């Protein structure tokens, strides 16, 4: 996700004449989650869609909310901005979709008309951006209202698994856009990814599409490093090792890396990335930084490097869908754990202790298969 937090928050506006209720997951003042009864959402604008959820997933941003790191979001909002579902109802202005379509819900709502959407930055959409699970009730419920559905929903091909496709809501677009493209990964180049969480792994999968000659994954967790090797990393390095920096640089004959992707979001890892970048290279910051980070210009000013940071715009989702449909992108590896929706509290506990459970993406299932 991103560190872009709106200044005002309200839960979703739902018609009071709805007689049907649904189960929805909210966060409480105590920082816990709870499943409650809520009225089913209804069409509020001609650009809306109502989606019956099949699978939702938990994002690191949801944990930030639970910890109180996003004070603009008030307790009681339905969490979640990722998921796959079936279109149940459509506003009159929605184009290209039909009731019954299986769809991926974009993490960024895109109106398509404002100055930011016109510039390819839906993350800053003046009537959208990150609204689900933030300003509006989100995807961790049996039904969700999706504004600006024409550009914010993507039809899912019959060949693709619904649960695995939740990674197309946020993790894979973030890994590609904020990681691989921002780091300017090129054929034959060298890439290091610092952080083997869900987005770091997504960046690994996306980087392989650009055929670099060397991809190295860095993390503290041995099980995640093993998974990175299974997903195609040429080498892995545990950053707790005293000689981690020397080992990493030796893989490039001391030259450093053409593309450095920071996918953790703490000062130490960003500093580490500055030490690994090659002359003429690029650092892409993907992690969400909540504290001050040092930029060592005294060491970098003459090395012709670039540092790029951005929010996920999810404009790459149609391209990623095509790659998945063609078999060039395997979606199955990132969702490691899934729970029936009534066990959502256990799912959150598992994701909070991801290293203990060997978890990457954790899904909530509204169907049983």
Structure description:
This protein has 369 residues and is an alpha/beta fold. 24% of the residues lie in helices and 24% in strands. The chain is built from twelve helices and 15 strands. The strands form three sheets. Strands 3, 4, 5, 6, 7, 14 and 15 form a seven-stranded mixed β-sheet that branches. The two termini are 28 Å apart. This is Zinc-binding oxidoreductase. Its cofactor is Zn(2+).
Give me the CATH fold name of the largest domain.
Quinone Oxidoreductase, Chain A, domain 1
The total number of structural domains is: 2
CATH 2nd-level architecture of the largest domain: Alpha-Beta Complex
The H-and-E topology, N to C, reads as EEEHEEHEHEHEHEHEHEHEHEHEHHE
Overall radius of gyration: 20 Å
Shape: globular
- Annotated CATH homologous superfamily of the largest domain: Medium-chain alcohol dehydrogenases, catalytic domain
Largest sheet: 7 strands, mixed
Overall residue-averaged pLDDT value: 92
The rounded distance between the terminal residues' Cα atoms is 28 Å
| Helical coverage, percent range | 10-25%
Residue stretches low in confidence (pLDDT < 50, at least 5 long) are: 2-18
Number of helices: 12
**Which structural class fits the helix and strand makeup?**
alpha/beta
CATH class of the largest domain equals Alpha Beta
Strand content is 15-25%
Domain Enoyl reductase (ER): 31-364
Family: Belongs to the zinc-containing alcohol dehydrogenase family.
GO molecular function: oxidoreductase activity; zinc ion binding
InterPro entries: ADH-like_C (IPR013149), ADH-like_N (IPR013154), ADH_Zn_CS (IPR002328), ER (IPR020843), GroES-like_sf (IPR011032), NAD(P)-bd_dom_sf (IPR036291)
